[in-house]
Fold each of these.
Amino acid sequence: MANFTFKAVDENDRVIQGTLNAPSENLAMLRLKKVYKNVLVLREEQMAQGSTTVFQSSPKVSYEHLAIYTRQLATMIEAGISINRALRFLTQGESQNLNLVLARVAEGVEQGKSLSKSMAEQPRVFSDTYVAMVKAGETSGNLDMALKKLSDLMEKVVTMTKRVQATFAYPAVIFVVCLAVICLFVFYILPLMLPVFLSMGVALPWPTKVLVFVVGTARDPRVMVPIGIVFAVAIYVMIT
C-alpha cells in the first residue's frame, strides 16, 4: 500500500487536503473522484529507506467538545450528508485538538475503513463504549440515531459534571481561605508568640507543646519540601 497526498474540491467548492492509502495511483484517483467533485493534486509520498511509521497519539480532547461534535455529526448524517464530508465539515470547528483527531478519522473513512474502526484507532478520544455504539449504528443502518443517543448521554454527563463542580465550588473556596488562615497563623503569627511562651519559664500544657512541635516541623524545609512535591504530583495526577 502506498501513501498519497491529495488536494481536492468538494461539492461546496472548498479545497480539502489530506492523505490516502491505496495500492496504486489509479485506485487512489478513483476513490477520490467518488468523494470529491474535482481532484487538483495527487502525488505519492516518498518514504526514506529504513524509515518506520511512527504512531501519533491523540491529543487531549474536552469531553464537552466531543459531545457537541457528536451532536453535529448526527445532525449532518440525518440530513443525508456523507460521513466523510460531515467529518471534514467538523474539522473546521473551534476545538483544534478535536479537529486534528477528526481529520485522522476522515482519512481512515476515505481509505475505505468503517467509521467505528477509524474511531477505534483514536482510543484516547473515543472510548470503547463510544466505538461500540457507533458500530451498532453502522450494523443496523441507523447511524444517525445511534449518534443522537450517544450525544444525549454525553450531554447528560456534561450537565451533571457542571452541577457537581458548581456544588463543590463554594466549599472549595472556604477550604482555601481556611488553609490560608492556618498557614498565616503557623508561619507568621505563632513564631512571634513562641519566645513569649519560652520566656515564661513554666511547663507548657501538652496542646501547646504539640502546637510548637507542629510549627517547628512545618517550618523545616527538609520535611515540607518532600511533602510539597508529593502533594503537587498528586494534584497533577488527579487533574490529568
Amino acid sequence: MKTSIIKWNFWWSNPDKLNDFEWVERDILKHTISLMESPHIKDIIGVRRSGKTFLMYQIISHLIQAGVKPGEILYLNFDDPEFKEIKKTISMALEIKPEIKYAFLDEIQNVPEWEKDIRVYYDRKEFKQIFVSGSSASLISRDVGKTLTGRHITIPVAPFSFKEFLSKHNVDYGDPFQKEKVAHYLELFLQEGGFPETLSGKVVTKEPILVNTYNDILLRDVVSRFNADSETAKKLAHYLMTNIGNPFSENSIAKTINVHNETVKKYLSMLSEVFLFYYILQFSWKVRVQLKKDMKCYSIDNGLRNAVSFKFSTDSGKLAENTVLAELKRRGKEVYFWKGKKEVDFIVREGDKLTAINVAYTDTPHKRETEGLMEFKEKYSNSELNLITKELEQTEEGINYIPLWKWLLDVKH
C-alpha cells in the first residue's frame, strides 16, 4: 500500500512532472477553485472517463503554483485494489507525510459507506479541503445527502464542450480568420464527441476507446454496482442509443425488449445515475401531467452514441439536436420538450421564463420548425423563440435564428 500511495503522489518528489500532462484547462476549473473559499467537501461527479481525475490534477497543480507544499497534497484513486478502506489508506499516507492538508479521493464510490468516514474527517477539520469524485450520481443520493447535509458542494463534469474541444485543437474561435477551422471542427465534434481520451493526436483509432468506455460503464457502473442483469442493461441501453430524440414510454420499451414495465423503470434510473443518458419530460406547468406523457432520451456524448449504435449517418440534424441538449445540461438548465399540433425540441425553464428551441442545422429550415415555435408562442406568449441553424443568422417574426457554433460558444448574436 505504501508503494502505491507514493506512486500516485508523484509530485511529492517531482512536482514538475505535472507539467508533462497535455491537458486542456476545463471550463469548470475557475469555478471549482473559487469554491475553495468554502471548507465544504467538494464532490466531483460525472460519467466515467470524462476528465474528473485530470480536473483534480489541475486543481493540485494550481495549489502548488499558489505556494502549497507538494507534500501537503494527497491523492488516492480507489480504483487501485491496494486501497480498500479509507481510514487505513489515509492513516498510511499520514505516516509518510504527516503534513497533509488537502485530500483528493478519486472513484470514492468503490468504498461502501465512504461518506461516513469522510464526514468524520470533515467534522474534525483534519484537512483544509476534501475533494471526492465518482462516476455515479449516488454520490449525491438521498443517503449521502443525509450524512453530508450542509457539508458538501457538487461539481458536475461532462465530456468536453465544443469550446474545450476547440481549445484542445488550438483554434481561437474569436479570430475571424479561423472561422473555417471552427466550421471544420464543429463537424468533427458532431461526429466524434468530446471524451478527452479520443482527442489526442496519438490515438490510432477512436472508436475502440469509446466502445471500451461504453462497456465499462455498463459492466462496472451498472451491472456490478447495482447487481443488474447484463443482457437487460445492454438491450435497454442499445434501444435508447438507437432512438435518441424520439418520444417513448416505459410501456413501449417494455414491449419492444420484452421485459416488465417495472424492470424498464428501474434500469432507466440506473442508466441515468451513471450519466449515460439524459431524459427530458414533456413540458407542462402541472407535474402530474408531465409524468403521464412520453419522455425523450439523449446520449451524454455523440461520439459514444455513434460508436456503439446505428449511426445517424448523414442525419446531422439529430447529431446537432443531441449536442444542443448535452450543452443545455452542461449549463445546468431545466429542460423539457413540447408537443401540440407541431413540436418544439426543447423548452428551457428558468423560473417563470420559458425559452423554446428548435434545432434544424440547415440554412433552409422546414416550415414545421417555425410553426412549432409560433404555436408554442401562442400558448405561452412571454416565451423567447430560438431556432438553431447551420449559418443562418437573423431575427424574423420574433424568432432568433442562431448558428449552432455561435450558440455552443455562447457568442453574442
